[in-house]
Amino acid sequence: MEDSASYVRMVHRLIEECILFNLSMEECMEALSKHANIIPVITSTVWKELEKENKEFFEAYAKSRAERAATDQILAGIQRMLSHVNSDVSKTQSLD
């Protein structure tokens, strides 16, 4: 029984590392499967238990991830616009 409890604690710690890297549950499941040979259903089960125990934290975490994703989309759009502007300026300058 102690082995399974220590295994769950290890998965718990690895999930905390995933959270520090701002990963979603799905991304964490994939990362732990690939890098730690942890079966995704184990990661999912521990993650969901952590969500139950820390509901407010995970609600804030989900909101933060959504806000970050929106910000990333806005920044990507601005970068595309600037790229087009720079391209247009370069074309104009080469005509001179």
UniProtKB/TrEMBL annotation:
Highest taxon of the lineage: Eukaryota
InterPro entries, per the entry: CHP01589_pln
Pfam families listed in its UniProt record: A_thal_3526
PANTHER family recorded: OS02G0137100 PROTEIN, OS06G0705300 PROTEIN
Protein's UniProt name: Uncharacterized protein
Source species: Carya illinoinensis
Organism ancestry: Eukaryota, Viridiplantae, Streptophyta, Embryophyta, Tracheophyta
